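Structure (tokenized):
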């Protein structure tokens, strides 16, 4: 089989992988937009002949690993005649996110898949999705088999989240492969071992005990972290308050703390801005009005932790002024620190500092550390390794030695 990394050999996020069999069957894995900061690329509309061109069709299927925008964000640009395979909850979360940020959701028909069940494309390429630990719900890696060869595409993965226990079992089931395409987000950080979510829970207890009121700034799609902070709130007897976006995401997933499912001491806060939101036009009737019954002013009567967004600055000021809260308070920043480069984020954190709200950093990566990457290599024992989703391939060469194929975007590799 032939492999081309159309985008992603020297950048984090926005990766697109093309795989072609000897018979000409052609698939794509992931079709995402570039992360914040890649302005030189982001301003250009991505055109791939036969994929985004709706007058021709040169591809047989597109597979999406998970719901993060840098892996799925350009999905609406794909030719409507090309099958797109997306896990059911991945599509749901992406569409909910799109409604909240004013982006067009996936309206076209797509195909879903089940983990561990192979999909055959033109009786030529077999793709098997496997559930993998990542900071996005129901993320997956793909085993691709064609022309008597096996290739594993990891997508984004790790071994230290709440699904980390399945990692070794999964890669043992996959067994030896001929080639590995692995994300290398942490190559530039060269981290041997990240903290686990359980270790993060222990750290959060200390912070929750130090402050009366806790504001939490994290991705609403990072459900592992929602669970971590909920457990800390229960342990320290604080009321748990989700913002509207977090509440909607959590209530649409199974066994995630949310006010709809009557979890203990869980309620909702709806920012005033959402009552005025008109894009999409159904936003208030679909998301605000049905969730209003889960609001609770009583939740602020005692110590609490609440999920917030940078757009909620006026709401936070209202809490401090009208409800006389946030006197001994902090904001836990629980995301990639690179997002602080964004001017809106910087302004938000600066304004909270002026209000006397202390900042605490508490985070663990959604990506594999060096120890996990070495474990993966040891178990599946590939002949060649193609690092993507990285801005430092030199570290990959140090870790995987002579197995690394150093290629540029659009260069071909024959497996």
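Design, position by position:
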């Amino acid at each position: 089989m032939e492999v081309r990394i159309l985008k992603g050999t020297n950048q984090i996020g926005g990766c697109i992988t093309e795989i072609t069999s000897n018979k000409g069957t052609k698939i794509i894995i992931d079709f995402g937009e570039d992360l914040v900061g890649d302005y030189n690329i982001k301003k250009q509309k991505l055109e791939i002949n036969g994929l985004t061109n709706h007058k021709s069709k040169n591809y047989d299927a597109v597979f999406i690993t998970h719901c993060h925008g840098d892996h799925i964000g350009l999905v609406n640009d794909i030719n409507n005649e090309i099958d797109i395979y997306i896990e059911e909850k991945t599509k749901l979360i992406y569409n909910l996110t799109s409604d909240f940020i004013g982006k067009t959701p996936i309206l076209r028909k797509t195909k879903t898949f089940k983990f561990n069940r192979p999909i055959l494309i033109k009786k030529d390429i077999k793709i098997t999705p496997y559930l993998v630990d990542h900071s996005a719900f129901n993320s997956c890696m793909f085993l691709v088999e064609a022309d008597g060869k096996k290739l594993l595409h990891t997508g984004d993965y790790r071994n230290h989240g709440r699904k980390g226990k399945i990692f070794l079992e999964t890669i043992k089931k996959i067994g030896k492969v001929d080639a590995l395409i692995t994300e290398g987000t942490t190559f530039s950080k060269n981290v041997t071992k990240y903290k686990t979510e359980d270790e993060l829970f222990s750290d959060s207890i200390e912070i929750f005990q130090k402050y009366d009121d806790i504001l939490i700034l994290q991705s609403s799609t990072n459900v592992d972290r929602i669970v971590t902070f909920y457990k800390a709130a229960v342990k320290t007897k604080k009321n748990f308050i989700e913002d509207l976006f977090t509440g909607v995401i959590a209530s649409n997933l199974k066994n995630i703390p949310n006010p709809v499912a009557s979890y203990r001491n869980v309620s909702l806060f709806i920012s005033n801005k959402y009552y005025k939101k008109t894009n999409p036009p159904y936003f208030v009737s679909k998301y605000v009005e049905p969730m209003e019954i889960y609001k609770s002013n009583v939740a602020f009567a005692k110590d609490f932790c609440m999920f917030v967004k940078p757009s909620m600055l006026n709401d936070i000021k209202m809490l401090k002024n009208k409800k006389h809260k946030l006197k001994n308070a902090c904001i836990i920043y629980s995301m990639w620190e690179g997002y602080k480069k964004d001017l809106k984020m910087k302004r938000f954190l600066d304004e909270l500092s002026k209000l006397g709200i202390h900042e605490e950093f508490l985070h663990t990566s959604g990506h594999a550390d060096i120890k996990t990457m070495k474990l993966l290599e040891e178990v599946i024992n590939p002949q060649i390794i193609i690092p993507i989703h990285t801005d430092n391939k030199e570290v990959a060469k140090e870790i995987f030695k002579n197995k690394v194929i150093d290629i540029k975007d659009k260069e071909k590799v024959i497996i």
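Reviewer-requested clarification: The longest strand covers residues 125-131. Residues 38-43 have pLDDT under 50 and may be disordered.
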